Protein 1
Amino acid sequence: MRSVALSPQQRRDAIRAMAEEPLDVLVIGGGVVGGGAALDAATRGLSVGLVEARDFASGTSSRSSKLIHGGLRYLEMLDFRLVAEALAERGLLIERLAPHLVKPVPFIYPLTHHVWERVYAGTGVLMYDSMAALSGRSRGVPHHTHLTRRGARKRMPALRKDALVGALHYYDGQVDDARHTMFLSRTAAAYGAHVASRTRVVDLVREGDRVVGAHIKDLESGETHEARAKQIINATGVWTDETQGMAGERGQFHVRASKGIHLVVPRDRIRGESGLILRTETSVLFVIPWGRHWIIGTTDTDWDLSKDHPAASAKDIDYLLEHVNRVLVEPLTHDDVEGVYAGLRPLLAGESDATSKLSREHAVSTATKGLVVIAGGKYTTYRVMAKDAVDAAVDAMAVQLDRKVPASCTEDVPLLGADGYEAMWNQRTALAARHGIGVGRIEHLLNRYGSLTLEVLDLIAERPDLGQALTGGDDYLRAEVVYGVTHEGARHLDDIIARRTRLSIETFDRGTGVAEEVAELMGEELGWSAEQREREVDHYVKRVEAERESQTMPDDETADAARKGAPDVVPVVER
């Protein structure tokens, strides 16, 4: 598949195309489900538009636990169908769809009771592995094993001796969620979809009892355009009810937001080579290897405040530290925390007061003519959700089309960067020698760009200074900033520091130390004036200050008020 760059020019062309030509399908929402739906529809031969009010994955889809997993705890809830579906998708992603982005990750499940818990938990993990093997697709990860206490502590010396009597060792999948979601939208564009970020739907267009389009505001230029479509797919996650409300009707279901926060700490603060999965009073807690860091999460609490910028409070942070410290030889403190991020899960509202008991399954509604609503679900099953949404759209517009629309084929459509990835991985030493870059750097690039790494290396060949690491963010090259603008749709400083890279959570300064350098590199590509660069840096610094303040607040209400203290991103004025 030919690579398509999400460049500034491509964005302008996409907005113009959506305004000029009626579409078969317009997808609202550039998260993982929206990107998946755009790809699904485009690969069926439909004309597709995808609009996102902010940046790709800027909401829930960049703030997950970074896991592609079946969900062991759903077995305990007897939700076998959801687990089997998720495990099948895990195998697809690791083996076929995105091997450059989704990798196996090991976990230790500590046992605290003799005999019965090993039988009980061991049976669950055996079922987990067996369901993956029986899915008809490759499991994609090694089989689980049983460990003694000594064996578990050999893999994880950080575990207190009295925190376990033995353990299970198993594997799941891990993903950089923001990059994977962006790759979905970019792959959809490669198959012909018109894709544009920073385009907000301000209203839906109705003719009689049917939704026939949307008014879309370009948040950079301030211009508003009308895009017409036979079917619109509402894939806006926690904003589902608000988008549905633009149609002037109540939906068949409602979405309830559940807040989950995560902490990021340096790898040397917890000695070990495997992740941990720990039981808490209400759910489970993960300690997840993440490059030179660990991710610790998550919480699961009701949230009815700002959906744009959910805030983590001191209470949330204390909760995670308290629970993880119960099993660690050397307890973590607030000073060990490099990054904190909070996200909202879009759960289907139910009878339970506890969000941890609400459904992680998804639902599709076609109650309003011309509008398909998809909500609920979990990150791992995004492809199934996208397929179901497009299926519903195709069924609803059957009389409007003069052709039969093929069934979904996305289980056989690798994302950009997947084809050729394995061969390039095998050639990584030769690539390093050819381009004068260390093998470790080449591996880093291959696991972020796959076979598109050659495009990044081409930038370095043209401008050798781009082969240098960012000052204060040496895990990333200067070329990655430029590539993020020219090929990955980044429009603002926040897009690069928080999502194209993960410096906002991987450094103690939350990325403020690279802000000036990143703004200079972005400004060269986007034609920013000196004033625009200053505004971008100022906005980012104020965002970090507001987040830090919110994380000292005692509860959600005060944390939300503090986070709102930072202004939203400013429009880019291009030359």
Protein 2
Amino acid sequence: MANSIEFSLFAPYNKGASLIGSFSNWNEISMKKGKDGYFRTQVELEDGVYQYKFRVQSKSWFFEPDQWVDVNDPYATDIDDPTQNGVVRIKDGQKIVDTYVWQHDDKPLPADHELVIYELHVGDFSGGEADPYARGKYEHVVEKLDYLADLGINAIELMPVKEYPGDHSWGYNPRYFFATESSYGTTEQLKHLIDECHARGIRVIMDGIYNHSEAESPLTQIDHDYWYHHSPRDPDNNWGPEFNYEFYDENLETYPARRFMGDQVRFWVEQYHIDGIRFDAARQIANYDFMHWIVQEAKQAASMKPFYTVAEHIPETTSITNADGPMDGCWHDSFYHCVLEHICGDTFDIERLKDVIDCKRQGFMGATNVVNYLTNHDHNHVLAELGDRGILDEEAFKRRRLGAVITMTAVGVPLLWMGEEFGEYKYKTQEQAKIDWTLLGHDLNRGLFEFCKGLIHLRKSNHALYTENIDFIHENPETKVLAYSRWNEEGSRVVVVANFSDDFLAGYTIPNFPENGTWHEWTANYDVEAGDNQIMVDLGGYEAKVFVWQ
């Protein structure tokens, strides 16, 4: 039985629009514009799957005046890859995204301060290991979830999965903001991935692009300057047409770009049950008023469940995340630069190290305000950086372990880039760069995996590392040794002693130890006594010792 289905297009200053689709043999169906700026029409449709587009008289400056152009629905929830048409599904007389039934919405998820985030790119994470060019899909990420659960991470940050042109991209060129990238699989398969993460207590943070769109995104074709700035505000940092969150339409009493983004953020939270958003290029968005608003829209849609918002604002700024800031956290890029330079032996600056290990010294307020990482998708893998300096094999893995200790014990939320936990060593590239899972068969790589797994467990079982409490108990610029203590009010204590030199330091004394008595040295698994508020330790070159209060 056919039902009347409404199609609508918000294009308030366009002269005309019509609907074309597989249901009309691609003949035009006229649409009528209301005072609210929407063109609408009703079509009698049986339940099923149909393809469609809008034909609209464009107001974009790069077309002839009022030129008719075919565009996809900016709100299309699926795009047919071969034809690049919008897809609409009708079931029980209603438009639906799909028929997925969520299984694990009742599972408890970690709080923001408990997060250990794993950033991954669906296309390069796994799948088709025998074929270096085979695309990774959502289903292949599901196959690796038990591996990730074993590693101990409790959040994955998916690089953008909104529909982009072509079949391989990092996703920072979104063309359709409501549709999922079809080369990775179906909408149901993405929901299944998120559901299976939740089953394992793993939150899903979505990388979102709110600064710009890809050049042929539908809104650019309909009326470019209604949603976007006419031209780039910062030509050196421009990746496509930039949304104009300042423009207010007084006739319709709306901010068009904000309205569109609010709609899509609510859609992703409600349809895909995501648990957080990373806001790409927040410095280029440059509108805290909009960011405050969009974060509130997301959190209201998420209702009672934890929802973490983190900005990529490079260089980082405390204003985006402190008391009056719009975000919960921000990518801690100075941590990356500083710690990498120190484990590579490029420099030694004890005050800089203290600044990034205790973000409060930089003006941040607490433990969820920064996300610490040694690398991410924008940078080379750490072993590639070490290799560039002639640091290879066991020496490289030793320094990578030192970096892992600092990342997991500094104040803030730690993040791993995919493959870092076992020593992937590729250079950054936007070309296909699949993780080499065979590395896990090598002793050094497997050893690094076990070390990172152990550190994550240490962090989750010693809640001193969840706090913003930190004391630098010892620093020695000559020997390049830095020691710090972390604690909470319940008696959890962890002391980290790090040697940033090549020298083996035998019988090195650490004064100002916070407690006398038995401590457990975690990296080598032995107990040691502290007396007279000091401890003696043998410290290898580029080595960290981690003492846990018993």
Protein 3
Amino acid sequence: MTRPTPETLANSARRARAATEPASDVDHTSTTRGAAVQAAAVATPEPAVLSGAGSLVRSLEALGVDVVFGIPGGAILPAYDPLYDSTVRHILVRHEQGAGHAATGYAQATGRVGVCIATSGPGATNLVTPIADAYMDSVPIVAITGQVARPAIGTDAFQEADIQGITLPITKHNFLVQTPEEIPQVLAEAFHLAASGRPGPVLVDIPKDVLQAQTSFTWPPTLDLPGYRPTLHPHGKQIREAARLMSNARRPVLYVGGGVLKAGATEGLRKLAELTGIPVVTTLMALGAFPDSHPQHLGMPGMHGTVAAVYGLQKADLIVALGARFDDRVTGKLDSFAPDATVVHADIDPAEIGKNRHADVPIVGDARHVIDELIAAVTVERAADRVVDHADWWVQLDDLRKRYALGYEEPSDGTLSPQYVIKRLGEIAGPDTIFVAGVGQHQMWASQFISYEKPYTWLNSGGAGTMGYAVPAAMGAKVGKPDTVVWGVDGDGCFQMTNQELATCALEGIPVKIALINNGNLGMVRQWQTLFYGERYSNTELGTHKHRIPDFVKLAEALGCVGLRCENAEDVDATIEAAMAINDAPVVVDFVVGKDAMVWPMVPAGTSNDEIMFARGVRPAFDEDDV
């Protein structure tokens, strides 16, 4: 394929602009990270007589909501009438799953609560996947759903579904609103619950007749959440014990999870790491919390983590877990994980502590406060000259980093290497770019071969592993951070689940960029079939290579985007730079790559981290006597 010419780009851009409606003229700027109630509301001393729907929209305005993602339908339709005149921007998505993931991407990029709206029945059930996704990754979103009128609940009425019951296991809390008078209080409580403590999704289900009924609206409401008091400040005794262990350990590791990002604790983390000299590993959900280039960073642990990170945890005598949950993808076979390690586990959610791995020193508290207090306690230890030299530990880890550095082999058949594409994308786009990944091989390569130097620049579906996440989440991130370049890194399988949201992007003026890593297959499934199923490739070939169905360039153009294609290594830089030059329309780049590339290193599922493979048939040589 030839390089894209300026004339080709200009024509593609013109086609995209012709299909693009002007964006809303509302100023969509984000506030600072982490406020439970997003904006100070103007009190309404005299009650205003409104419909329940009007009260809902006024509540959203008072909470400082600037954008919602949704699709109207019968039960939620009353809410769309006052929304027509509201300062809240509504983005009309093409599928409710897109609305939920867009709300998640918005929340992950900005730290604010994301909001999605759907109607009853199938509209609400289409939100189940993004709600579950947000729950697994502790993302603050509020999902507002319409419900059939109260007299019809329980009668199997048209488009009725018990969405409150369906989502009970995958929400932090959910509400079925019973009267129009309670709408402001329920909305304020929902936002507070979503954003405070351990963040998560909250569902608000509102019957149609409640939306239609008249009510008196006043603001602010009084929150009534008995028993909900997240512990923010850790216990001093536990902090002092953790600091003592950190000062005495010979092989310590800081195991950093996404909770550090949620708490806005990245500056404190760097200070703590540099104060103690302890190696740092950052999970898939925590990439960017500690600079990848920092000399103390060992990389990502787990199934596809670096050899140094995996063995650092495995051979540690002390693990200090900060906002992490000892997920199976990190620990491998749990009973063989880090057998000699004492564990300090700090988390804002007490249910996580000891759930998977016994915590010798449990610390309940917000990661920012925990880290700040650890810094103070460690400083006291160091002032008393209670410090252990980690030089031998670093010699071992540095040797592993050197011998088993991340890399890849160029495909022997001359096809384009996906790792090379992603590596060059990260280098050309730069450290300020927000990267949003789908799920599978491309997700792992994006986590490995892009250097994340700043927090909140890496978004992905970590816990649920949701195919179809990338395009709508990138859309939400770009809405939340309109002045930041947003690249979605997607696979040809994931992309075909939610690419219709590119029509939303084109019409709403949301110029995301999508790097489509097109290997013609469900890549990660094919990798497992290669390794564990005797190369019996059952139902993993998608036809995007052999038949070019769909033709992703034509599909992109049909959706109002600029479509580009790259099939050769010598064209990669020019193609990425051409995409970077287009800022007035969404761009999709079809990178046609080889089908046989694999993600390495790898710990096979269900096995011990001791069995990590650096490459196919290559087991790292690690002398037990060294530790």
Protein 4
Amino acid sequence: MSDRKSLPLSVVALGVVYGDIGTSPIYALRECFYGEHSVASTPANVLGVLSLITWALILVVTIKYLAIVLRADNKGEGGTIALVALLNPWRARRGSQRYVLMLLGLFGASLMYGDGAITPAISVLSAVEGLNVATPAFHPFVVPITLVIIIGIFLVQSRGTAGIGALFGPGMTLWFLVLGALGAHGVLNNPTVLAAMNPVHGIAFFLRNGFAGFIVLSSVFLCVTGAEALYADMGHFGPSPIRRAWLVLVLPALLLNYYGQGALILTGAPDIHNPFYQLAPDWMTYPLVGLTTFATIIASQAMITGAFSLTSQLVQLGQLPRMEIIQTSSDEQGQIYIPAVNWLLMLACIGLVLAFRSSSALAAAYGIAVSSTMVVTTILTVFVARRYDWRASVTYPVAAVFLIIDLGFFGANLFKITDGGWVPVVMAIGIFTLMTTWSRGRKLFQSRISGSEESTQELARRVREDPPHKIPGTGVYLTGGDHAPAYLLRHLERNRVLNERIVLLTVQTIDEPRVPAVERLRGWGVAPGIYRLVIRYGFMQTPNVPVALRFSEQLGLDIDIDNVTYFLGRATLIPSDDLPGMALWRDHLFAFMAHNAIRATDFYGLPPEDVVELGFHVEI
């Protein structure tokens, strides 16, 4: 990519990719010395913690994610689901290695929802708490102001981010410049803090503090939360702009600000309790609160958008039930809005703010989800490397090093479970249960109805030997595989009528992000008047059956879209304890999700006036 194209993308990436990690200086260093699991702010400890932060940013973000993980792309796309899709595990045999890796990846994806709920809560709350630095009189209003901002963020989601998205890049550019300037001013006042660049200070910190030093790793880890966004957002920008933005602006600004805060703490002033805000001169407190709040809104927006994108991928891959997915931009396919996810995340954020009431308390719940996801990413990357023949002599030793680092952060965060770390874990377990129940239930449902289905050849024989009454037009029957669905056979037996042209249509989601329009439709004739079509989409695309059928002419099948009737089967599920498969409570859960999934008419973009639904009952 040319510099002329890469530079604007790098600026935009600042607003989308680096919002979360870019707002970490508000609370990360503070928690190391003034949080619940803190250590004394002695000069040696300050240099030790700064050294750990420095090398966490270099090793975890710069080397692991930017240099290594970004290479594991799925046709240019990144993220946990894209990484899992590289292993093609969706039809793997239960208990096989690929099946276990799929479950691991899905649990990692589930953890991202907990992160998506905590990020807006802790970021906005920590920003508004800056008002306390100006005057304690604002203390009673911090939580109400935070709630108003959070509710406002979620209320505007349905309008999309196109309008304000243009401000994200320049806004975060200003944010990082201010971070760097404040930090540089602090460092100039006490240049001895630069000694923390030496990793020996970090090693000495552990030797000196023992177990207490290990626990502080959970606070140090806050400086790298958001690193997963580097990988998840790769498809929007490509690796080059993301790397450039990090190396040129983000990393220097973060290090300068952390070091500036450390220099302030080294002064030993007894009134230091919020070094981020106290690093600024008094006249700048209110403007800094405003800029910080804006930056945390951008960080929150990026996480919410990420939750929408993740949910859409899971729905397309059949790991979650069909949901209403609204396209908020006519130009950018990735700009979507999912009402159910939006309102659930908003309720979760409100609950977290009301329950914890301070960013320090929320910091105890923050980290366990991200550290777990990082462990999952490292493990999956190793197996992807094996599949794509990366050099084992390099891959395994490097992976071992990063796995030790990831497990160290994860282990330290485990001690925060009782302080609130259980919240994202419980959320992840709940979402993981929904996903596995839906996936397993769909397979059981398909096995239950398979006995009532016929092959396409058998359907052709039946129609040939006992011709039904034919009516003009095309009848499109959605089916999950290479067979005639049970509801079509029931319709034929009961009504003795079919359209003069029958299309058995399957919509497939493949393990690639996108399928070009010219490669989307495949088809062949089964018998005179009976055709088999397959429409293929990537897991980041939204299906639209009528639009895809317009390409049928390329296959020699001229379908008049204005004279098509779409036939769908609508199953009523009856949970039963007499059939093998899942526990009865999971049967009821699957039936509940199926009942509340949006209709296939809406999901596949079918015109409602041209749809006929045929109902049937299935025991599960």
